[in-house]
Every structure is written in C-alpha cells, then in structure tokens.
Backbone:
C-alpha cells in the first residue's frame, strides 16, 4: 500500500474539495437514524479533511492512516478546527489495537490500494470484528469501467507557485488494475525545486466479488450505489458505494 510520502505535502492542493461534501452527504443519508454522537472510524483518513467533517457533524471520530506525514497534517487541521479527533498510525489490515465502533468509513477508493482479494477480504473481516452489533460500514471503490476504460491514458498536470506535478495513469497486468505515475517538483526553502517520483497501484474487482467477500466476512445486509447518488450502478458508473450492516 502507498504511504504518500511526498504526496502528503501537496495532496490537499490537488484534491477536489467538493468531493468531501459529497462523501459527507452520502454518509449522513445512509448512517442509521440518530447516529450522531456515535463512534466513527475513518480508515485511510489521509490529511483529515473528511474526519473533520464528521467531527463537525457530531460524531466521535477516530482516523487511521499508514502515513504519519498525512496524520501530522490531519492533527494540525483538527486543532485549527477546534475538534477532538483521535488520529492513529496503522494498517487497515490489522485493527487489533482499536476498540469497537458504531460506524466505519473508507472513502476516496482507498481500498483499491490493497494488493489482492485476500487483503480485501482480510480488511472486511477486520472491520466486521471492530463494528458494534448493528453497525454500518460504508466504502467506495473504482468501478471496473473506471479502471478499464477511463483511467488508462489519463494525464493530469498541475502548476502552482510552490509546486508542480505530472500525473499519468496506465493499465496494469492484473484485471481491472492501474498504475499512477506521479512526478512532483516541490519548492524548497532556498527557492530551488526538488523532484520526487512516486508510483501508486490500484485494483478493483467485479461487483459480485465484493459481495462475496463482504458475506464471507459476516456482513448480511449489503446495498450498492453509484457515483454519490442513491441509484444502482450502471455500465458506465465510475465509483461504486457499498453500505454494509452488521
């Protein structure tokens, strides 16, 4: 799984901020009624923007991420927003050090960074074990249409005063997998720009695979939606949303 070492410093600048509003709105629509005040675990919380949104909405939030660099930014964000959020460095494949939660989320296709179906199934099992009875798990992933038709050949360039980046995406060998190649030019204190390169690999699966893995983990009530809306996926949906109940 990627740790976003360099990406942490420019991640917020290149993210579409409106997506956090959409993730928040989708969550609030699909959390149980009277869920506010409940314990919420956000997996792959990154720099904490979504965690802060959940805290501001009235939840007791814990954010977990592999990247300590991102968690440092997240903690500063929470302090600036005057919110008490527990940020934990850790791997979603092993949640053994955490308590149970009423709600678990994992957004921004973060599960697509897991290596294979085994890791996906293990993560679902970890989430199930750390959900309270009646708890809700919500996550999103790339659709197979997104990985197979949209991403291959994708290119994004960003230029700002203190950084520049080139983001190119290619199809990878495993089915429904892609490789993001990122090059950053970041302005240092002396005014010079330093180059950094990172490679991020993502993979998704057929809808049926997710259903089977969730069922094997113990989830029985699973609903699937698409593209932040309460509608069923179509052949050209870009992002799938799963709402699973324990």
Residues:
């Amino acid at each position: 799984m990627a740790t976003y070492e360099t990406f942490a410093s420019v991640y917020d600048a290149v993210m579409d901020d409106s997506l956090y509003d959409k993730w928040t709105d989708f969550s609030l629509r699909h959390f149980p009624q009277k869920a506010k005040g409940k314990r919420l675990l956000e997996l792959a919380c990154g720099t904490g923007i979504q965690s802060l949104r959940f805290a501001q909405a009235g939840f007791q939030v814990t954010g977990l991420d592999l990247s300590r660099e991102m968690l440092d930014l997240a903690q500063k964000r929470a302090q600036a927003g005057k919110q008490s959020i527990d940020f934990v460095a850790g791997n979603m494949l092993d949640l053994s050090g955490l308590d149970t939660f009423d709600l678990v989320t994992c957004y921004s296709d973060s599960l697509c960074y897991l290596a294979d179906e085994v890791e996906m199934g293990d993560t679902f099992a970890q989430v199930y074990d750390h959900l309270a009875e009646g708890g809700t798990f919500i996550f999103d992933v790339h659709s197979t249409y997104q990985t197979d038709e949209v991403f291959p050949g994708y290119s994004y360039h960003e230029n700002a005063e203190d950084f520049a980046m080139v983001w190119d995406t290619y199809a990878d060998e495993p089915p429904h997998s892609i490789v993001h190649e990122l090059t950053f030019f970041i302005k240092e204190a002396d005014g010079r720009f330093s180059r950094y390169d990172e490679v991020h690999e993502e993979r998704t699966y057929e809808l049926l695979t997710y259903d089977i893995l969730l069922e094997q983990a113990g989830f029985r009530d699973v609903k699937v939606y698409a593209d932040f809306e309460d509608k069923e996926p179509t052949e050209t949906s870009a992002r799938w949303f799963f709402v699973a109940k324990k």
Notes: The CA atoms of residues 17 and 77 lie 15 Å apart. The chain has seven helices and eleven strands.
